[in-house]
Amino acid sequence: MSHLNYETRLPLGQATIDHFMGLPAHPSKCQATYVWIDGTGEQLRAKTRTFDVKPKYVSEYPVWNYDGSSTGQAEGDNSDRYLRPVAVFPDPFSGGHNVLVMCDTLDNEMKPTVTNHRQVCAAIMKQVADQHPWFGMEQEYLIVDRDEHPLGWPKHGYPAPQGKYYCGVGADRAFGREVVETHYRACLHAGINIFGANAEVTPGQWEYQIGTCEGIDMGDQLWISRYILHRVAEMFGVCISLDPKPKVTMGDWNGAGCHTNFSTSEMRKPNGLTAIFEAMKGLEKTHLEAMKVYDPNGGQDNLRRLTGRHETSQADKFSWGVANRACSIRIPRQVADEAKGYLEDRRPSSNCDPYLVTAMIVKSVLLN
């Protein structure tokens, strides 16, 4: 239990941090922070290198290596793994010419590592590019102390029951808004298509939405937005939990998901509701397969969340309906009224891999 008693307060040396981070960015050099998914399939790693001149295109950023034995992606006697840049974003933390670089992870034969699902996703998106698949993902998360206790919760008890926290305003119901607002602005600066943010049903739980994004761009943007979220939380001395149902919330508290909105050009046309209804056939057919890839642990994480309670469907049953948040797939009321638009897949967990989720939806609806 030593982790409960910290002698050092975080963040460290705030005045010193402010001094040096307040220095102007270098006028010509570029700090490129390479970001990648580690062997857990849900955690991120990053390291930074300097370029004398900022590369103009993502293809100009070189492949770099890292120690895969320290990230759960290799053995010590064959530890080198490779980072291949795939997307570049302005760095909201250091400004100037500095960038965040989302990377593929490759093994010693330059093949995707086990938790690198981007390459397959990109190939699938290329097959359906003419149908212009649009996505929007709703990332829920819980802000926690370093002892993994939710922010704002009593250390030896529970907060008041759910009801007043969703979109709540006030110090007795909105815990961690500083993190949320900072993350929002950082995403805007980074060129992320952040659509909005709000407090969620469980105290200390929040949500932000990324989209609209087309094809592979959805996965790239969500992963980088998560990296930015973890970095922002780090600066405030707190942590982010993407666990869909942490132990402390196993009572009468909502879990966390990553609801995924999807549409094709056909669905967005007048009378596109017909195409949305037709999509339900493919989504139902692949339900069990989808449940295995909608969290990074083969569907086991979602079993704690998708119980049929707390605005969820049951994990073993496929269902859909209009304006029904207890279904696998929800068709928003406005979409039904306008007879065109999009569908919402409510099954993905908060710690899902967006490359797997978006690829699965496209396979189910367009390639099944």
TrEMBL record:
GS catalytic domain residues: 117-368
Signal peptide positions (record): none
Gene Ontology MF terms in the entry: ATP binding; glutamine synthetase activity
UniProt EC number: 6.3.1.2
Pfam family, one: Gln-synt_N
Record text on subunit structure and interactions: Homooctamer.
PANTHER family cross-referenced by the UniProt entry: GLUTAMINE SYNTHETASE
Protein's recorded name: glutamine synthetase
